[in-house]
Amino acid sequence: MTVLVVGVPDGEQLELLRAGIQRNPHFRVLSHAHDPVVALAHARLLLPDITVLSLPSGLDSLDADPGVLSVFHGVRSLDPPSGVVLRTAADRMPRAVSGLAVEGAVHVVREGDHEALMRALRTIGLRRASCDPDEMP
Helix H segments across the chain? Predict the structure, then answer.
């Protein structure tokens, strides 16, 4: 499964996240972008299976940040849509983010919870692997 990482600036945090994801041989980070416009360009070109989208701290709703919202809707509108893992630094789940979780396709995890991130990646990967495009209307 290919992974696009969005919203994490270059540096140690990005490298730790990349290494953690790629520790599982089924996942390969193919690109990363901190800027929403660049992230959408990468997504349209590379068609990632999964997008890991880190939310800015203090974000209470995706509507509050047009860049984050455009990335979320942009990767979900790809054909096939990218699964999304929303990473939040908040101590508690932001009110408007928790309602976005979609069974098997969109997951919300706390930053630093590597096990939850890997569970979300595996769930999305299994869902995508079991999808048969010939069966879809």
Answer: 12-22, 36-46, 66-76, 95-98, 114-130
Nearest by Cα to 128 from 79, 73, 82, 76 = 82
pTM metric for this prediction: 0.87
On whether the CB atoms of residues 21 and 29 are closer than 8 A, the answer is yes
Going by the DSSP 8-state scheme, the letter that residue 56 receives in this structure is: P
Distance separating alpha carbons of residues 116 and 71, to the nearest angstrom: 22
DSSP count for the chain of H helices, then E strands = 5, 5
Residues 24-34: tens digit of each pLDDT:
999 999 999 99
Contact 4, 32 (CB under 8 A): yes
